[in-house]
Amino acid sequence: MEDFETQVEYYNALAKSEENRGHYKKATYWFKKQSQLQDSIVEKIYQNKFKNIEIENEFLLQQQKNKFQKEIISNQKAKAKLYFLIIVLLGILVITLFMLWYFAIRHHFKRLKIEVQKRKIHQIEEENKRKVEALETQQIQAELKSKKRELLISLLFVKKRKEKVKQIYEEIEKVADRSIISKESVLQIKDFVKLKSDELDQAEDVQHKLVNTHKDFFNKLLKDFPELSKTELKILAYLSIGLSTKEIADVQYVSIEAIRKSRYRIRKKLNLEAKDSLENFILQYH
């Protein structure tokens, strides 16, 4: 710029020098040159200003672009963080749902396992109960068989009792037929009667044992059926240990028909129908 200004001053000095000499054409020429140079300088100045403005604008635009790019990058980072946070939250939600589903399924299977175990335990208990009932039934049957055997032995003993009593009477009749009764014969009859008396006492003991061993049985029956007689209770006791009608008749010294009639009266008092078994009915009172 200083060179241009020096040149303008030089053109201006030449123009004034020519004008002083009276060379107006040359002076006009140098004035034009000065004016052109000044216009060129002004134009260059404006061009420089425009260039500076353009540079400034470009710089500002670049700054804006950089700022915008930074904002875009910042927004992208924020979006990336947001997406990452959403993905993490979704992952946590999925894991939570999976854990809830897993524990629900586990609880369901655990409950099913417990129910299966309960059913198994119930089945085992039922099976054990059936086994116990079967054992109890077997034990009752064994006891009944044992009692029946004992009573049958007693029955044979009691049946012989009549024969022994008959023998006593026959022996007494023999002694009575004699004209003279010796002391020895009397002693023999005394000993014989004492022996048979002891045997009769043993037979009575059998009857007492039957009553004593069936006290609970009699009490339960009388509680539900107080109208039962002692004889009927005794017949029910014989039936409970498995004696037949004939065997009961022998024990009671009555006819079979009498026992049948007693059974009929008993069934009526117990309100049993024709299809009901008397023997099975009385088993529940043992």
Describe the overall structure.
The protein is mainly α and 286 residues long. It has a domain at 142-283. Helix content is 89%, strand content 0%. It has 8 helices and no strands. It has helices spanning 2-21, 24-177, 183-213, 215-224, 230-240, 245-252, 256-269, 278-283. Helix 1 packs antiparallel against helix 2, helix 2 packs antiparallel against helix 3 (183-213) and helix 6 (245-252) crosses helix 7 (256-269). The termini are far apart. The mean pLDDT is 78.
Number of strands: 0
Strand content: under 5%
Span of the ends, CA to CA: 142 Å
Whole-number average pLDDT? Answer: 78
Gyration radius over CA = 70 Å
- The outline comes out as rod-shaped
Element order, helices and strands? HHHHHHHH
Main beta sheet strand tally, sense and closure: none
Q: What key phrases describe this protein's structure?
A:
286 residues; mainly alpha; 0% strand; single chain
List the helices and strands and how they pair.
Elements: H1 2-21, H2 24-177, H3 183-213, H4 215-224, H5 230-240, H6 245-252, H7 256-269, H8 278-283
Please sum up the structure shown.
It is built from eight helices and no strands. It has 286 residues and is an all-alpha fold.
